[in-house]
Amino acid sequence: MSWLKGMLQKEPPEPTDPIGTVVIGNLHPDMMDTPKEMVRKALKRAQFKTVDLGKGVSPSAFAVKAKEVAADIIAVSVNLTPAKNNLEKLMAAIESEGLTGKVVVIIGGAAVDKEDADKIGALFGKTKEEAEGLAKKVIAEKHSKNK
Questions:
Q1: Is residue 146 packed enough to be buried (19+ CB in 10 Å), middle (13-18) or exposed (0-12)?
Q2: In the structure, what pLDDT confidence band is assigned to residue 3 with cuts at 50, 70 and 90?
Q3: Which helix (DSSP H) or strand (DSSP E) does residue 59 occupy?
Q4: Gap between the terminal Cα atoms of the chain
Q5: Handedness of CA 43, 146, 116, 90 (dihedral sign)
Q6: Do the domain assignments include residue 13?
Q7: Of the four, 36, 42, 54, 118, which is 20 to 30 A from 83 by CA?
Q8: Is 11 a member of any domain?
Q9: In the predicted structure, residue 8 carries a pLDDT above the cut 70
Q10: Is there a domain that residue 69 lies in?
């Protein structure tokens, strides 16, 4: 029942002074919105600006939007094996937009694990709490490099 409680929680307010920007969505052809929504709300409550691309998002759309909004993180929900097969295309799209080393990719979902994340150079979060913790760590590391 805790998942239901999570879904019924009100939409968090937009952060007034966001600590970072996250582009989030379900990688094509994944249409399972619930896990992504839980992570998006957790990130928003943690004071991240979230740019939700929705469901069935193409690899190039993630990269183009991340460049457009100067995102710190791309958070990708992968709940279907066909979506998992698009992870390499996502990384290629990020490279083609010149974002390699500028944006961190965090993946999660039923179809992926830490090994999949390691294979593409991404971080893996199993739960919304892990995703939030990873995102905060990414921002902390970015700030320490810029000092």
A1: exposed
A2: low
A3: helix 59-68
A4: 44
A5: positive
A6: no
A7: 42
A8: no
A9: no
A10: yes
95/98 Cα distance (integer angstroms): 5
The pLDDT mean for the chain works out to 90
**In this predicted model, which residue has the larger pLDDT, 33 or 57?**
57
Phi-psi domain of 56 (left: phi exceeds 0; alpha: psi -120 through 50; beta: other): left
Residue 84 pairs in a beta bridge with none
Distance CA 6, CA 14 (A): 18
Residue type, position 34, single letter: T
Residues 6+ apart with CB under 8 A from 11: 41, 44
Distance CA 135, CA 147 (A): 19
Question: How far apart (Å, rounded) are the C-alpha atoms in residues 105 and 121?
Answer: 8
Cβ-based neighbours of 140, under 8 Å, separated by 6 or more: none
* CATH number for position 97: 3.40.50.280
Which pair of tokens denotes residue 130? 């892990």
- Asked whether residue 134 is assigned to any structural domain, the reply reads yes
Q: Please state whether beta strands 73-77 and 48-57 pair in parallel, antiparallel, or not at all (unpaired).
A: unpaired
Distances (CA, A) of 46 to 17, 61, 112, 147: 11, 25, 24, 23
- Residues, the chain: 147
Q: What range does the domain containing 92 cover?
A: 18-145
